[in-house]
From TrEMBL, chains A, B:
InterPro entries: SpoVAD, SpoVAD_sf, Thiolase-like. Coiled coil: none annotated. It comes from the Bacteria. This is Stage V sporulation protein AD. It comes from Clostridium fungisolvens. SUPFAM superfamilies: Thiolase-like (SSF53901). GO terms for molecular function: acyltransferase activity.
Length: 347, 347
């Protein structure tokens, strides 16, 4: 009996019934809305508290709105959605859990640090492909000010930022996967291994995550037989300028030159010099809003046909760092493809 | 086209190819090993630091050992396992992530607070049933001392415990799901909604989680057409004495009398009076070790044929509590059934 017939290679699944991403919503804060990708985001907040009394509640409200908007745009109701796969950076997934409290959809909480967007799309796609759902929402969020005080220092301290530090994206992205429609579809899911090469500097997450990104991209190529030339864009989540450089170089050593098609979401969302974001962006929200906003809309316009999204997560906590541990990284990849006509939400 | 043909009702999937739980491992600390279920645990630590320098590293080591032991008992290697679904209570899933760092298996991090064991078994079962894997590990852990200082106060403060407080289980449980073999099998997966009835007392988690347990159990009966009489045991995760009482009563109001078959894992793992554990146990590890130890071994002996495991999670963080939020709860359920002969690991 061939039970795991849908697995190709050790870490990759090829989807027989690629679920379609029929709608997405991207919400960002004012800083992201002032960056190079501003024209691609659906909602730009004028105030990063979004009218709430705390940054954490602001993040929850962004997550909630991203999910609700996506369902509404598709002309569906909460009752039509089988599962919500979501996660975020806040301790105990506070943003996702508190958003899910007000949404009547079976909820599966996920944590992969900043790899969570690809993790949620990947799991959602397997559940869709397997016939367990008609409609699934995958969503993540992050918030600069909430992340700073949880992982580093309260903003009030005015701490100096390291040259290799990254700026957590204030934003939330949600996508709706369904079976029918003519939309970008998820075709492959490559699940990552945890990799730790001993980096201990929590302000240099790009370097900590790069080995995981390299491993997952390499494994994706090995499992699928694809090469960098099969993709218009290969996008890591939030390695920033430092981690991007490492990833390109290491993959070259493994025989894959991805430089022509390589974009790091964390390196394109800000104008790093003007916006003083040092090594670029990070956060679950980073690959979420760049994918739900920028990439998705480029795909609808036919400007990207094949995207490999490789969201990347640094799995440390403040406790593990204080206890002298290094930073494990993980990367999950999903291939999204579209060569067709206009689905819902396009012009 | 009937795409979601495996879904019955709004929240439940009936598995066409019920994955078999061929091996489990339960590891507990000294207190759990001194309780009423001591004869059912595989490994009892004589020291709750497990020889490590911090409680967090002790928890990671328990999670690691539970996973490795389970794979070894089945006569398999890490390379044979397609996915590791795991989560824990520590911020950023430190226990799972750091255990996974030393284990060469594609890792999917989950967070459902103390509902994580049923969440991981449920997702693992869907992935198995769908043909995406030959072998999957589902695992969770918790540690009393690590949880106390993260969620409440460092032990050194000597804080008084509330009468309704629960004692976080020091323990880890892992199970291996596969396709063949004659073992207890996962037959139904009911995914929960987040429910919040306004409880704000973080030392009264049983009351906060009870509405979610009630909702998921009720939904399971509605979706499947089953009744309490179809189960030998219906087990909530860690509602403790207070939450258990609420759950029984509320379900009675909905027309289901589960009292004859109702066990709460958190109410049976300690001798609450002698061990001074007040309202009982809690923690991801609670339903994990009670299921991987006690229930699983009772099933192998034919003493339980049908189990409905309903792990229950309280989704607050210290930040949300300090910000005046109430405590959302969630419960996920899996049905595990066995009427057969002896699989691996039995006498």
């Amino acid at each position: 009996m061939k039970n795991a017939h849908k697995k190709i290679g050790k870490q990759t699944v090829k989807l027989d019934n690629p679920p379609k991403i029929i709608c997405t919503t991207s919400i960002v804060g004012p800083k992201e809305g002032d960056g190079p990708l501003k024209d691609y985001f659906d909602i730009i907040l004028s105030d990063d508290t979004n009218g709430k009394e705390t940054f954490e509640k602001a993040e929850t409200s962004m997550m909630y709105t991203a999910i609700k908007e996506t369902i509404e745009k598709a002309g569906l109701n909460e009752e039509d959605i089988d599962y919500l796969f979501a996660g975020d950076l806040l301790n105990q997934l506070a943003s996702s859990s508190f958003a899910a409290r007000d949404i009547n959809i079976p909820f599966v909480g996920l944590y992969g640090a900043c790899s969570t967007m690809a993790e949620s799309i990947g799991l959602a796609s397997l559940i869709m492909d397997g016939g367990y759902a008609e409609n699934v929402i995958a969503a993540t969020s992050s918030h600069f000010s909430a992340a700073e005080r949880q992982f580093r220092f309260p903003l009030e301290y005015g701490s100096q930022r390291s040259e290799v530090a990254q700026w957590t994206v204030t934003g939330a992205g949600a996508m709706l996967l369904t079976h029918s429609g003519n939309s970008p579809a998820v075709t492959y899911v490559t699940t990552g291994l945890v990799k730790d090469y001993g980096i201990k500097d929590a302000s240099n997450m790009g370097a900590a995550m790069a080995p995981a990104a390299v491993d997952t991209i390499y494994r994706h190529f090995q499992d699928t037989g694809r090469t960098p030339q099969d993709y218009d864009i290969i996008a890591t989540g939030d390695l920033g300028l430092v981690g991007k450089e490492i990833t390109s170089k290491l993959l070259l050593e493994y025989g894959y030159d991805i430089r022509d098609v390589y974009v790091d979401c964390g390196s394109v969302i800000y104008d790093n010099e003007r916006q003083k974001t040092n090594s670029g962006a990070s956060g679950c929200g980073c690959s979420a809003v760049v994918t739900c906003g920028y990439f998705y809309k480029k795909m609808l316009k036919g400007e990207i046909k094949r995207l490999l999204l490789v969201s990347t997560g640094a799995l440390m906590s403040t406790t593990t760092s204080l206890q002298g541990e290094s930073i494990p990284g993980i990367a999950h990849a999903v291939a999204i493809e579209y060569d067709g006509k206009l689905p819902c939400g396009s012009d």
